[in-house]
Amino acid sequence: MGYRKDRVRFNVGGRIFETTATTLANAGRNSLFGAMFDDSWNLQQLDNNNSNDYFIDRNPDCFAVLLDLLRTNELCVPTNMSEKLLYREAVYYGLLDHVRSAKWGPFDGNRLWLSRTVAGQAPGDGTAIRAGPDGGCCVAHGCMVHVYDWMLDEHPTINLDYQRVNDVGWLDSENIVVSVCERLGRGDGGMGLFSSSSGELRDKFQVSHENQVKSFTAGALSFSSDYKIFSSCKGRSNEYGIGVWDQITGKQTDFFYEPLGWSLGDADKLQWLNGSNCLLVATLFPRKDNCYISLLDFREKKMVWSWSDMGAPIMVDEKRVRDAIAMEESNSICVVNEYEDLGFIDIRNSGGSVRWSSRSKLMKGKMPDEPCYPKLALHEGQLFSSMNDSISVFCGPEWVLTSRLRRSHGGSICDFSIGGDRLFALHSEENVFDIWETPPAPII
Amino acid sequence: MSNQKKRNFQIEAFKHRVVVDPKYADKTWKVLEHAIREIYNHNASGLSFEELYRNAYNMVLHKYGEKLYSGLVKTMTCHLKEISKCIEAAQGGMFLEEMNKLWTDHNKALQMIRDILMYMDRTYIPSTQKTPVHELGLNLWRDNIIHSSKIQTRLLNTLLELVLRERTGDVINRGLMRNIIKMLMDLGPSVYQEDFENPFLEVSAEFYKGESQKFIECCDCGDYLKKAERRLNEELDRVTHYLDARSEVKITNVVEKEMIANHMLRLVHMENSGLVNMLLDDKYEDLGRMYNLFRRVANGLSTIREVMTSHIRETGKQLVTDPERLKDPVEFVQRLLDEKDKYDSIIKLSFNNDKTFQNGLNSSFEYFINLNTRSPEFISLFVDDKLRKGLKGVSEEDVEVILDKVMMLFRYLQEKDVFEKYYKQHLAKRLLSGKTVSDDAERSLIVKLKTECGYQFTSKLEGMFTDMKTSQDTMQGFYASHPELGDGPTLTVQVLTTGSWPTQPSVTCNLPAEMSALCEKFRSYYLGTHTGRRLSWQTNMGTADIKATFGKGQKHELNVSTYQMCVLMLFNNADRLNYKEIEQATEIPALDLKRCLQSMACVKGKNVLRKEPMSKDICEDDTFLVNEKFTSKLYKVKIGTVVAQKESEPEKQETRQRVEEDRKPQIEAAIVRIMKSRRTLDHNNVISEVTKQLQSRFLANPTEIKKRIESLIEREFLERDGTDRKLYRYLA
Lengths: 444, 732
What we know:
The complex is a heterodimer. In chain A, the strands form 9 sheets. Chain A has a 4-stranded antiparallel sheet with strand order 4-33-32-31, with no helix packed on it. Chain A has a 4-stranded antiparallel sheet with strand order 5-6-7-8, with no helix packed on it. Chain A contains 7 helices and 33 strands. Chain A has helices at 2-6, 21-25, 32-36, 45-48, 60-72, 83-93, 96-103, and strands at residues 7-12, 15-20, 54-56, 113-119, 126-131, 137-141, 144-148, 154-158, 165-172, 175-180, 190-195, 201-205, 207-209, 212-214, 216-224, 228-235, 240-246, 252-257, 269-273, 278-283, 292-297, 302-308, 323-327, 332-336, 342-346, 355-357, 375-379, 382-387, 390-395, 400-406, 413-419, 422-427, 432-437. In chain A, helix 6 (83-93) packs across helix 7. In chain A, 11% of the residues lie in helices and 43% in strands. Chain B has helices spanning 2-15, 24-40, 49-61, 65-89, 94-116, 118-128, 133-146, 149-167, 174-186, 189-218, 221-242, 247-260, 264-268, 275-280, 284-294, 300-321, 329-349, 355-369, 375-390, 396-412, 416-433, 439-453, 455-481, 513-529, 562-570, 579-586, 590-601, 649-678, 683-694, 702-714; strands at residues 543-549, 555-561, 576-578, 609-612, 623-626, 636-638, 680-682, 718-720, 727-730. In chain B, helix 3 (49-61) packs across helix 4 (65-89) and helix 10 packs parallel to helix 12. The radius of gyration of chain B is 47 Å and the shape is elongated.
């Protein structure tokens, strides 16, 4: 009897499917099947009826694929099936999350394959690409931000008064923060919070100095796990520094003014460090003549660590820092020069020097006409560095080069980002970006 | 049958639908609206889930999301207004029952409505920033039911009344109460707080204010605390049964404030039943209750602690300064120990072994024990008493317990060096007279002293034990090399290392000829085996066993001191001797001689000598003769010396002086040690560091330290800084 009771028959668009309630339970309560078989929907009615199957007015081919997904946790899309159609059906049944998590595996920098390349129509060089938490991404181009969901459908574009975008970031899968330049004397620009699905402006972040709201240019962005937003800010009357806002209320909660002889307001990169409760602020060449890297503790309003190449002997290009990233596990900051040499600075004591690992001297003299300077990213103990048209992956305590991602066309990579178990690489020459994924787990 | 009918109706409606129908949206919504009503009416079994789901999907797909959403709000609001009327209409006790029932229904319906509208909930609502269906249902319930003017105050009053009834002893339906409170919590923390918690706390404060006033007027402290504890437990119980766990702190704070904090001092000082009385009567349970309750409020424990310590200080001070009590040192120390035991068990049983209380107890003891300068002497005497006789027949563990307790008192002493002085004297006496009960106990105490005060403190005491042991071997060697000595008197010599023992400058008396010959032999034997040593006789510390025959032939063995032996031996050759003669013959110092004669002539039962004239005291012109009538039941008679067990006033002065003398080099050594490492230091720091360094031995007197510094400056160990006179420099 129990066995009989477990069996379920569906008539989907005319085709009969037979499965078990156990399989359907894999869909979870928050799906059509979960609701349908809940006790409150007393479905005995069918027993009174002649036909003993549930009718569903949907595409049977897609249903077959999705049923297999529930059976095996694996997604096998026939070549003749449109992915878009499948996704639409998955949304109907409430199985989109299942599809997404089955589509690609947990991120591993050494097992990436190029899953897609997306081209857009935006003119000129891209500014930044940012991976969203659920596999989507957004691309900043000039004064526009293009938003793509994980299915790589493009959503309405975002702009803040059509001002030049400096940085973008995902607060969560629904919300994007955009920081832009201010226009002289117009009081617009600054930072805005946008809906990722509709592109609507939801909130504008304001800066006030001595209780007066001021217009400002917002630069690099960073978010903390305790719901704060950080941005480097340049105000009209030399009000330079780092602004802090609350993600929930949108109100400014703090402002760290730039100390004399240092740079915060022009910063290229902000990074929130969870473990030490500090914000990394890096201002780099060529925005400034010198590099300034510091760690700020907002609770004590103190710069707890700093490093600069000011006063160093005649600037050699090889020693010029182009990007920096803090690695909390090893208590150090990784920096990179324009030849993709990695360097490390210890953050346990101030005033240390960079320990360069001269690895890629080969690059010298072989720079392309329009070089893109290296960028760094860190993901679960793997260090990524982009250089020209490839991205290198480094692993282990000694940061050994373990993989290199390269694609022959599209020009140099001007920015890349890792998130939602995907790596997005934005190329400079054409408005093209690549999506790299780890394939789902093998069958055995 | 009615189900059958309804289904038919739906299928009809569906058949007629065409996608291009301009009224499509209206029709679809009608179907859904009907379904929502049916769900509320418990008629859901007649509905087709798939169809409804598809309809809602189609509406959203065809951009009628807004219509669907606003329709939902309207339908649900309308339905909730009806529900609200039902609840309002409920009479008296049925009010909560009805609300609970309808709330359960609403929740179930809400879940089903969300199931139908799942597609809208997932796609349309997030992109338009609207409230999700489930939350919407809760918000509408809140606005239409809980915050409706006819229900809001009634609900609050009903809840508060039920709580009051429960507080006054009635039994209420806790399950229902829990469901209603749970509903308020589900509607959001602010609803729970504003519509219940805050007023509840206010009413509770009022209630407990009144009740505590009533209790404090008519109860004694113990009873009041019992009642307060019960109330507190009741509130905790209430929280676990039907309130939000986060209310626990808030409501207990109210009870604590109203019942305890506001009456704290009055409770502690309550006449005849307050804290002091509890302490006096060892009311462990009441004390424990007070501790546990007072611990909950600010300053609660410090209040108890202060009263307790001041009480201990007060009684302790009386104890150590009462001249009556000072008569018997053993009893004096026993009383201290009893007092300590009493409070130890109070702290253990009632005060949760609280460290701060232990510290309070310790500092109080330290305070009053040192009020009496004789405490070190008395403690040593207590040990002496225990080790002489007190520990006979006591098991090893119990000995340890007693010794540990003594050590505890010792720790309180500031003048540990004074104790050491006395301890050394008493130990010497015990060792030399062979009176110590247990060698193990002696050594165990030394080990304890060593761990407490370090090697230096006990090295001399240990030296005394070593001397005793070596002396035994020496004596064996002596007799082995002089076999001819078997017949004569037996000599036992204990060779004491100078310095280790509290020897006084020796005033040797004249020993009887037999003895002094023997002594000479021993001296030559000893010096023969150990070269480069000097022996001098401490006749004041020895004992002797002599055999005596009295007038009617009664024979006794007398156990006497060396001095007494010398005196008695004189009577072998004379019948009567006067004081002067004895003094001349023996050369015993006058004071000792008087004591020794007194003990032999004036103590009843031990009077082997007769004195003329008969009187209590010895005068210079007394005459002594052998008491031929001496009798005793025992063959062996121990003739003690009349010694004041406690030191007499001049002796005390002398000991004191010696202690002071001994301290000088120690203070100087400390100063030099400190200055050697610091090179320069100002006066105040020198004083404080020296005090700290010497703390484990005694409390150094600042004026004395200053004198020592002066002396070191004179001897050019230190100098004053040229410019800053308060600064000292070390001169290498």
